[in-house]
Design a protein that fits this description.
alpha+beta; Immunoglobulin-like; 2 domains; four-stranded antiparallel β-sheet; three-stranded mixed β-sheet; 2 helices
Length: 182
């Protein structure tokens, strides 16, 4: 067999080539790769002709410039990325019973049950701290029965159930010093 007899794909794929099988396949792949590159080069040239710079051509070309389309909203976007809207706040003011001053850095626990029509009810708890004014704010507490507990070292722990009747409600809590142990 010689090269002149095999002019089709047999010559490209190494039928007339003598040597190892690896050399035959590498020659075949090299030839096919060259064909792919040569056949795709006109497509690349056509795409480069339609580049965004061609939209800046003269207005006499007959085509009006297309306005840029806004990006489509992502349907798979996580809803947790959206900002949280808080409808109302439960405000808790904590003061000392001795001198009626606000108590700073007191731990405030707000516990309530979120009622579901289908499935189990969910126990929700907010762990808050009071600011310099002795105020802690809990977001979106539902109307109904709520347990509020206040704990601070050096003060007697406080805990009581409250009925929340308004969306924005303020609760005043007075902490007392514990009795001295002898």
């Amino acid at each position: 067999m010689s090269w002149t007899l095999h002019m089709g794909t047999e010559a490209v794929c190494g039928q007339g080539f003598r040597g190892t099988r690896l050399a035959e396949w590498s020659f075949c792949l090299l030839g096919l790769g060259a064909l792919v590159l040569l056949s795709s080069s006109p497509a690349v040239a056509r795409q480069s002709d339609q580049s965004p710079d061609s939209s800046q051509s003269s207005p006499s070309s007959g085509q009006a410039a297309q306005p840029a389309k806004p990006p489509k909203p992502d349907k798979n976007k996580n809803q947790d990325d959206q900002p949280v809207v808080i409808n109302h706040w439960l405000r808790i003011e904590v003061i000392g019973a001795d001198d009626k001053k606000p108590i700073e850095s007191a731990s405030v626990y707000v516990k309530f049950t979120e009622v579901h029509k289908i499935g189990r009810d969910k126990q929700i708890e907010f762990d808050l701290k009071t600011n310099q004014d002795g105020v802690a704010r809990a977001p979106d507490v539902p109307l109904g029965k709520v347990l509020i507990q206040v704990v601070l070292k050096g003060w007697k722990p406080f805990g009581e159930y409250y009925d929340i009747e308004q969306a924005d409600q303020t609760i005043h809590i007075e902490l007392v010093r514990p009795p001295r142990w002898y």
